[in-house]
Design goal:
This protein is mostly helical. The chain has a domain of 212 residues. It is 70% helix and 0% strand. It is globular and about 75 Å long. 28% of the residues are buried.
């Protein structure tokens, strides 16, 4: 006889406990007193989603606010141009209060802080990543970053993934062009947020080398691996959504979400080193196309070819795509319904979505 095992993710409801003793047994012996089985209040996915979202929210606050505030204070006290500016103004007979009340001072300080924008971002990312030790512990340095599946004969899959990333950028560029017809340029959002060092050597190492590594470790490492037990598809989509919200502006967040889906697939089916390589390559191409001497027609032509190649690949492998989705089938019933209805997920996602929309207005020019 086959005995069906109880599902581990379903809470035991009161009243499900087995009956102790038999009422028809009329004896003088009293039935043994046993403790009722413990009742689980929440399913594992409910609990894990709360943990992930609290850590993610803490990491976001750490990066965007706490470390930004600390770095800004340090810059204010140790940046030579700021010190020279304040000294010159006060030596000219102005009071310190009058200097800070001057709008020109505010503009100057903002410009000086923007110079360190990339450094602030990197320090914030490192601090944010460290918070994932709360839920991952030593796995953050072992499982999350070292899990590898051999490529074998799947090189075409890797090639298709990077082609898809570049093909998506053509769609984003077209959307950007349509929006720009209204007089609003969404592509200026990220440049305004990062600062003026984007096309420098420091910008190259920050945007192409350091930031992709930290972000891959955080999203395709810690978050993805923590949620995989509830289904590969659920883990990939959830980390991609959080990756999009992490960028704090709706324009780049949409591209980050779609790219996060591809990188999540690569990280799970190959390794984090391949998703990092693709992330760094994508950022590197964007960095090169941002250089002033680059021909203006080249980015459009490059992304158009990638888009055409993406369409050809999808048509050619249209029968394989459902199989790929099926491989990531959930390990529990309705993981998206259980996970995304979690109050912590709803609250964090809603707040960050509002922030993304606000930043489109504030930093979009």
């Amino acid at each position: 006889m086959n005995v069906r095992k109880p599902r581990s993710d379903v809470a035991v409801q009161p009243g499900d406990e087995p009956v102790i003793g038999d009422e028809s047994d009329e004896t003088d012996e009293q039935p043994a007193v046993t403790e009722p089985p413990s009742v689980r209040k929440h399913t594992p996915i409910w609990t894990d989603m709360v943990r992930v979202m609290l850590v993610f929210a803490g990491a976001y606050i750490m990066m965007q606010f706490i470390m930004s505030a600390i770095m800004t204070v340090l810059i204010f006290f140790f940046d030579s141009p700021i010190q020279d500016y304040l000294t010159d103004r006060t030596n000219a007979g102005e009071s310190l209060q009058a200097v800070f009340d001057d709008p020109a001072t505010t503009q100057f300080l903002l410009q000086r802080v923007a110079v360190y924008g990339l450094l602030i971002t990197i320090v914030g990312d490192v601090a944010a990543l460290s918070l994932y030790l709360i839920i991952r512990k030593k796995k953050l340095f072992t499982t999350d970053i070292t899990t590898t599946k051999p490529v074998n004969n799947r090189w075409l899959e890797l090639g298709a993934a990077i082609v898809f990333i570049f093909g998506i950028q053509l769609v984003l560029s077209l959307v950007d062009s349509l929006i720009s017809l209204s007089g609003y340029d969404p592509s200026t959002v990220q440049s305004n947020l990062i600062g003026p060092d984007t096309n420098t050597v420091i910008g190259f190492f920050s945007i192409v080398i350091i930031a992709p590594f930290l972000e891959e470790w955080m999203f395709r490492g810690a978050i993805l691996r923590h949620l995989v037990p509830y289904g590969v598809n659920f883990a990939i989509v959830t980390q991609a959504l959080l990756f999009g919200l992490w960028h704090s502006n709706l324009y780049q967040g949409i591209f980050a979400f779609v790219t996060g889906l591809i990188l999540g697939y690569v990280a799970f089916n190959f390794s984090l080193k391949w998703s990092y390589a693709m992330h760094a390559t994508s950022n590197g191409v964007a960095f090169l196309f941002g250089i002033s001497w680059m021909p203006q027609w080249l980015p459009g032509a490059f992304f158009a070819l990638a888009f055409i190649a993406s369409a050809v690949i999808i048509v050619h492998f249209r029968k394989v795509i459902p199989l790929v989705v099926a491989e990531g089938a959930p390990q529990i019933d309705h993981p998206f319904q259980q996970g995304w209805k979690n109050p912590a997920f709803i609250a964090v996602a809603a707040v960050l979505f509002v922030i993304c929309c606000v930043m489109m207005v504030v930093a979009g020019g």
